[in-house]
Fold:
Amino acid sequence: MRRAAVAIAAGAMAVSLAACGSAEEADGGSSDSTKSAAKGDNIKVGLLLPENKTARYEKFDRPLIEKKIKELTNNKAEIQYNNARQDANLQAQQVDTMITNKVDVLILDAVDAKAIKNSVQKAVDAGIKVVAYDRLAEGPISAYTSFDNVQVGKVQGEALLEALGDKADDGQIVMMNGSITDPNAAMFKEGAHSALDGKVKVGKEYDTKEWSPDNANANMEAAISAIGKDKIVGVYSANDGMAGGIITALKAAGIADIPVTGQDAELAAVQRIVAGEQFMSVYKPYAPEADAAAEMAVALAKGEDLSSIAKDSVDSDSAKAVPSVLVDVTSLTQDNINDTVIKDGVYTADEICTGKYKAACDKLGIK
Structure:
């Protein structure tokens, strides 16, 4: 079966962000940038990430963001970090703590993009700029960085169709979308449907609470019972964690050799791809996203313009033309593991090719 890497480039549109605001008027004409310049590199940055079940946040996002902030501030910035553990109420409390601690800027990956709106407003009212990270939080955010999430879903859908080939006409697929509290999930779903609709029958579709692998497993068991195991030809999974729960359910039902998609290029997923249990994942290089968040946060804390950093622009329901950095993604299959996660230093061949995966790695030439 032919497998291909698909690189997606985000469109660009230059956007400028004014560095003056209400603080200038209230201070008799002194600008934010003037005041921040006196502070120099001694800024205080808050970093709030949404959960720790998905491996990426603690393994990649946090250390990459913190490293870049330190580089940009000659190691003088103070970074305050918290993880919400998938609890929107806890994250709101964490924003309050950041306000109390008087951070200069906040990098926020929202658990619930809509529920966090009031907290974003409170931060802005306290003079704190907010950078929405990975998920487009509601409220008056100053900047945003993520991936082209509609294209992510489209890449997944197209990969699933490629894997199905003629079998797309022979049965039904199950769609396992992400949590409805995550705006990215809606965009992944939109992109996937744009590729899949009219080309394959969707037997069952779920919005998976909290992106939980356990919930995905239970949903998959229900889908197998409803559709029948002999009629399922493939599964669209919006991320790798859920793919793991799905594949466990498929194995328990005696279903093998059907393509399952994913996203995030988690180590366990890469190993499943090597073993042929999962067809693909979406590789999203975290370093460019993390670097963009750090660069925009430091610039905002210093009162600097974002036009040299943010070449894109996005709209949310509550903010228009938000300066943004959108990062390219790649479809990760057996064919390009060497050229993606290994080449970029995300994993070594030794990390991937442990124990039972070594023979398959050797066959694929992973090194």
